[in-house]
Prior knowledge:
This protein has 9 helices and 13 strands. It is an alpha+beta fold. It folds into 2 domains: 3-178; 190-383, paralog of FGE (formylglycine-generating enzyme) (Alpha-Beta Complex), CATH 3.90.1580.
Amino acid sequence: MHDASLTRAAFDARRGGPQALAEALVACRADTLASFAAFERALPGLAVPLRAEVNPPLWELGHIGWFQEFWVGRNPERACGPRARPDTPRLRAGADSLYDSSHVPHDSRWALALPDAAATRGMLAAQLDETLALLREAGDGDDALYFYRLALLHEDMHHEASLYMARGLGIPIADARWQPRPLPSPPVPLEFDLGHWRLGSPADAGFTFDNETPALDLPLPPFVIDAQAVRWSEYLPFVEAGALEAPRYVRREGGTWQEWRHGEWQPLELALAACHLTRHEAEAWCRWAGRRLPTEAEWECAACTCPDAFRWGDVWEWTASPFAPFPGFEPHPYRDYSLPWFDSRPVLRGASHCSQPRMRHPRYRNFFPAARNDVPAGFRSCAAG
């Protein structure tokens, strides 16, 4: 996909200048605080159960501000971009023992003596002011803006996680921006016969995540791929046939399908993309239907070469590809972003209805364990032949 075919928000997040980046950071923080406020309204004492896929909301809020301060405000090599040393000594290290996700074990976060919500919001306000002041003096080169872009997209990821965490806890999210939208009847599948594909982000792409580079040339046999994600109306006959149990958040009651949304069971809109599926559920449907999951190269090729016909962004989409480094991979300074997770978990592509528009980039590689079903993930399929 050429930059011209990206949304303005996605372009600005990766290639925009300081002014666009400053506006995005402010808007991003407003959304972070709005989702946190929804947790405050719904959860007395902000208490949540200890689960692997959940974090205490107060810890999440503090971690977001800590991450931005650590990589921007406290980073003496922030102007070096991806070449910055990850272990450069930093001042003001007191919050590291609370919010550094690389060193604070997940299950210990429930027992930490965290500042209260008002104090945490105050710290985040001061931290953002510092970031914006530094940004005004940063210059407009890709290296100079690298850590500001990283902090922005990191916060966007946590915002999306807060939305699907809210769904799992039955917390209503009223903002229409984060609600799923119906898909039309499946269009004609798309056929490709290119012979090869250059997978990943080019060197001149502005900001990139480390796992997107260096781009590599791959042979790409002809393939036929769905033009959109599989909807509930295509997925549920597979469940009704007894091939597999109903997935998370969906049940059949009184002859009709319902979904768990906003803390109650509601009628399921069958035109929505099938969502909160595991990779196993996606693969099982493909076997039942005589189809297969696309590779990430097939998915990226279709998204980049046919952006008008290839609909994506309704759900994260499981692929058949394992999350692995491209040949010549070099980790960026935030070492724990990709490096610990090259363990054959699958790649997901696209974005979801919970994703910020800034995150919706066709080269972005998401990755979760195959058994996760709290993530708003679904799939599309390819012709098996």
